[in-house]
Amino acid sequence: MSVNIQGMGWVTPLGAGLAEVWTRIENGERPPLQEITTVHSPGIHGGFLVPPKTVESLGRNPRLRRSSVITYYSVAAALAALENAGIQMTPATADRTAVIFAICSGGVVYTRKFYEAIVREGANAASPLLFPETVYNASASHLSALLGVTGMSYTLVGDGSVGMTALKFAEQLFETSEIDHCIVAGGEELDWILCEAYCEWRLPATLAEGGAALVLGRSGRFALDEIHEGVPFSRRSGARPAIRKVLVDLATKCGAVDLVVGSANHTFIDAAESAAIAENFHETPVELPKDFLGEALGAGALIQTIFAALALERRGIRKTLVSTLGFNHQAAGLILSASAA
């Protein structure tokens, strides 16, 4: 079946409004690279952070005052997506709504903070308020509670392609259950330990933080014509054949597209993906939103999908392809078109 996008929202290093961020990308703007440090090491890393003025404009929700930053960004994106869809979350609506949260590294940040306090000040310094945020499904729990969703709420943990996996899972929920809406959200928060890990792994991507969310339904403004189930690979050399299979499968099922939205992020992903795209869509324009917004990991594939939808809406094109390659290790993709509904 074809699942449709009803609403979209994001929080990025370039702002939070759909039109605002799109315009800034179209104008070639990039956020400033900011230093990310720790008192425990002389190492300095750089990343794209959400500006404080963006956070202030979103306003803090009282129910999230003790939640993690990753939760805050993701919930803000989800609320914006519901508003964009024109949906008010009543008890009756919540009863027929599912939540799927895509995450990569968020809980690791809070595990570091929790144990750092113990090492520095002793076991009595361990905060019972901080510990719940070390759990990967904390953000999904906060979002579901805020919206009053008491039924289906899931958390998928993966790499930079995990948002694509979440969209495929949402499609399966629509096929097997009687829901009206599914909120697919993802987020990422930057911390020194996360940047240090990617440096040690020799993955020189410019990491970023933020959140993204899509409200999906059985009808809507944009049709997810085909969501690939994904192809895993066990080493970097397998990235190109994996993404090649994804693109061949999508081209076979859906034909030509007007735009490819890639996931290149200045790592081994770039060469593997660009070769596969050139082989299968050699005359199709390619855009790389991570050049402007950085690699937001858990939110990355959802940000790409929002970018593709905005391209459909604002450029008057008919069909886009979103290609994703993750670090550890998954290739996936989807075809998006303007809905006839």
How are the elements arranged and paired?
Elements: E1 3-11, H1 18-26, E2 34-38, E3 41-47, H2 52-58, H3 69-85, H4 91-95, E4 97-103, H5 106-121, H6 138-147, E5 153-157, H7 162-176, E6 181-188, H8 192-200, E7 210-217, E8 222-227, E9 231-232, H9 239-254, E10 259-261, H10 268-280, E11 286-287, H11 290-293, H12 300-315, E12 319-325, E13 330-338
Helix pairs in contact: 3-6, 9-10
Structure description:
This protein is of the alpha/beta class. The chain folds into 2 domains: 3-220, Thiolase/Chalcone synthase (Peroxisomal Thiolase, Chain A, domain 1), CATH 3.40.47.10; 223-338, 3-Layer(aba) Sandwich (Peroxisomal Thiolase, Chain A, domain 1), CATH 3.40.47. The chain contains 12 helices and 13 strands. It has helices at residues 18-26, 52-58, 69-85, 91-95, 106-121, 138-147, 162-176, 192-200, 239-254, 268-280, 290-293, 300-315, and strands spanning 3-11, 34-38, 41-47, 97-103, 153-157, 181-188, 210-217, 222-227, 231-232, 259-261, 286-287, 319-325, 330-338. The strands form 2 sheets. Strands 1, 4, 5, 6, 7, 8, 9, 10, 11, 12 and 13 form an 11-stranded mixed beta sheet that branches. Strand 12 and strand 13 (330-338) form a beta hairpin. Helix 3 (69-85) crosses helix 6 (138-147). The chain is globular. It starts with a strand and ends with a strand. The relative contact order is 0.19.
